[in-house]
Specification:
The chain has one domain: NADH Oxidase (3-Layer(aba) Sandwich), CATH 3.40.109.10. It contains 7 helices and 4 strands, in the order ααβααβαβαβα. It has a 4-stranded antiparallel beta sheet, sandwiched between helices. Helix 2 crosses helix 5. The chain is globular.
């Protein structure tokens, strides 16, 4: 079973092309239920999830920068935002954890996602989805049934990124 789970983690891909089929609300809520179990500093759970189905709102979000385009044709968008007053030092990491949980839960249910950067466009995204100033959008996700099967991208070798005790000390394992 553990090899199966490790292969599951390795098999997740960023999906940028989606079938037009709607995603049932029950699946979206199941995914977000998993996300709320993500780790956060002091268990602060500073996140909120804005589910975006409205085509006009998705289009506005898809146009905040060139790499956000997959959102326009995805059946669902999700904005993951964190309350900076609840988690001032770690909100970005807390919401990154929740975002990864969403991506893995979606993958487990046969759905695809792609992480769309938000930190260059905070106030614009806040305005589009009505977030208060103390809620920073840490990520947007396009979500839907995949209409592509991307090959895995090349990864760095472990010897290039793993050290023992101190940077530069070879880990021979």
């Amino acid at each position: 079973m553990s090899e199966e789970l490790l292969n599951f983690l390795i098999s997740r891909r960023s999906i940028r092309k989606f079938r037009p089929d709607p995603v049932p609300d029950e699946l979206i809520l199941k995914i977000l239920d998993v996300a709320r179990y993500a780790p956060s500093a002091r268990n602060s759970q500073p996140w909120v999830f804005i589910v975006v189905k409205d085509p006009e709102i998705k289009k506005k979000l898809a146009n905040v920068h060139v790499w956000a385009k997959p959102l326009e044709n995805a059946p669902v968008g999700i904005v993951v935002a964190c309350n900076t007053e609840v988690s001032p030092e770690s909100y970005q990491v807390d919401c990154a954890n929740a975002t990864m949980q969403i991506m893995l839960a979606a993958h487990a249910l046969g759905l695809g996602t792609v992480w769309l950067q938000t930190l260059r466009n905070i106030s614009e995204i806040q305005g589009i989805v009505g977030l208060p100033k103390n809620y920073v959008p840490v990520a947007m996700l396009a979500l839907g049934y995949p209409d592509e099967r991307p090959s895995p991208k090349k990864r760095k070798e472990l010897k290039e990124i793993v050290y023992l005790n101190r940077y530069g000390s070879v880990f021979v394992g």
